[in-house]
Design a protein that fits this description.
alpha/beta; six-stranded mixed beta sheet; three-stranded mixed beta sheet
Length: 262
C-alpha cells in the first residue's frame, strides 16, 4: 500500500479507513492532501466502502493557505484557481465517481474545502462538538471544492445562501435538523457508529450500491427522462451481478442474503 505525507490509510475488513493526518494544523488541507487522497481512492485494495475522518480534534479546517505561502491572499486568486483546478477539484470528482459507498465521520470543525470533503459522504455522521463552516465571506473569497453544489442541493437556496453569505457555524445538531447530514451523534460514539454503518454498507450488494450513487447524481442534476434512463441502465448492470442472483436465491429460500460485492 502506498505511503502518504498527509493521510493515514487502514483496511479494516472490507472498509478502507482514510484519516486526514495533520492534527497540528487541524488537518488543514494543502494540495498534497488532495493528491494523497486521490492516490488512496485509486488504491482501495478491494474495499467495498470508504470511511473518511480526521486525526485529533478537527475533521478539516479548510485549505492550508500557509502551505501556499500565503500567496492566495495577494495573487488575485491565481494560486487558488490553480490549486483547485489541479488538485482539489479532481479529487472531489473522483470521490463522486467511486463505485463504492462513502461514509464521513466528522470529528470536529469542517470548514471551507473541509466542509466540502465532509459533505461528499453518502452518509455524513458528525460528533456533537463538530460544526460546519463556510467562512470565505470573512476573507473576501467564495466557497469552493463543491460547497455551493452540496449546500444548494441539500438545503435549498435560502439556507445555502445564509450559510455562505453570513459565514455562520452550523452545529452538528443544526446540520441534522436542516437535513444537511445523516446523523449527529455523541462524540465518543462517532467512530463506532460510523464504522458499524460502513461495515454494513461494505457487506451490501456493492454493484447495486455503486449504481445507486450514479443514479442519485443523475437525479440531482438531470431531468426525469434522464433519471429513468439511468435507473434502467443501473438495473441492467446490477441485475447481471452475482449479488442479484444471490438476492433472488435467498428470497426464494427465505434466508438472509450473503453478498460478495460482485
Amino acid at each position: 500500500m502506498p505511503e502518504y505525507e498527509t493521510i493515514l490509510t487502514e483496511k479494516r475488513g472490507d472498509v478502507m479507513v482514510i484519516t486526514l493526518n495533520r492534527p497540528e494544523r487541524l488537518n488543514a488541507a494543502p494540495p498534497q492532501m488532495a493528491d494523497d487522497l486521490a492516490v488512496a481512492l485509486r488504491n482501495l485494495d478491494g474495499a467495498r466502502c470508504v470511511l473518511i475522518t480526521g486525526q485529533g480534534r478537527a475533521f478539516c479546517s479548510g485549505a492550508d493557505l500557509q502551505a501556499r505561502g500565503g500567496q492566495s491572499a495577494v495573487s488575485g486568486g491565481d494560486v487558488s484557481h490553480m490549486a483547485l483546478s489541479r488538485h482539489y477539484n479532481p479529487t472531489m470528482l473522483l470521490l463522486s465517481e467511486l463505485d463504492v459507498p462513502v461514509v464521513t465521520a466528522v470529528n470536529g470543525p469542517a470548514a471551507g474545502v473541509g466542509c466540502s470533503l465532509a459533505l461528499c459522504g453518502d452518509f455524513v455522521l458528525a460528533g456533537k462538538s463538530a460544526y460546519f463552516l463556510q467562512a470565505f465571506v470573512n476573507i473576501g473569497l467564495v466557497p469552493d471544492g463543491g460547497s455551493t453544489w452540496f449546500l444548494v442541493k441539500a438545503l435549498g437556496k435560502a439556507l445555502a445562501t445564509r450559510m455562505m453569505m453570513r459565514g455562520e457555524r452550523i452545529s452538528a445538531d443544526q446540520a441534522e435538523e436542516w437535513g444537511l447530514i445523516y446523523k449527529s451523534v455523541a462524540d465518543e460514539a462517532l467512530m463506532d457508529e460510523a464504522m458499524a454503518l460502513a461495515e454494513r454498507l461494505a457487506a451490501g450488494p456493492t454493484v447495486a450500491l455503486g449504481s445507486m450513487r450514479r443514479t442519485i447524481r443523475t437525479a440531482l442534476d438531470g431531468s426525469f427522462e434522464q433519471t429513468l434512463a439511468a435507473e434502467a441502465a443501473g438495473q441492467r448492470v446490477a441485475g447481471g451481478s452475482q449479488d442479484a442472483r444471490e438476492g433472488g436465491k435467498s428470497f426464494l429460500e427465505k434466508r438472509k442474503p450473503v453478498f460478495s460485492g460482485k
